[in-house]
Amino acid sequence: MGTASWGSAVVRACEELRRDGKEGRADTREEIKGDARLARHAFGAQFAEVRVSSVTGEVRVPRLLGVFAAGHIVDAKLARSQFIGGMTMGLGMALMEETLTDEEFGGFLHRDLAQYHVPACADVPDVEAVWLDEQDGELNPMGSKGIGEIGIVGTAAAIGNAVHHATGRRIRELPITPAKILLPRF
What we know:
Blueprint: H1 2-20, H2 29-34, E1 43-52, E2 59-69, H3 76-95, E3 126-131, H4 150-153, H5 155-167, H6 178-182
Parallel strand pairs: 2-3
Antiparallel strand pairs: 1-2
Helix pairs in contact: 3-5
């Protein structure tokens, strides 16, 4: 979202510098206010392949795919890393990350990364992120949109839907744990 927001000021200041030759400044507050009616966020669709053990309830995610419409991509390498990092965070949200508190004293029970598990590259061997070549000249001078969290938001849902497809169980609270998958049905 930063590029989509402050990037306008950078572009306008560079344009001013080219005209003036010595200094470039820009105040884009009014320009940005005028664009408030426009969608500044990216859109995407995510897909997950899962394997669920019928014995242990353990969920493995061998493959994730994200397809995004994010306006003009300013730096392809950084955008790909942002998308893949977000999708990996979404995997953690879906399967691992849980905040537990001590009911008596209110403190957090997971105090470090030895107790609070987050995903690593080995947890999803094949992650692919692609984007559509989208031109949006109305939004800002670069035609860019925010991509900071778009990789995260759909991943947990994609994993949850894949687990449902594999097991017939609809898990409605994250994380999706073996205990929730193996819980007897009534």
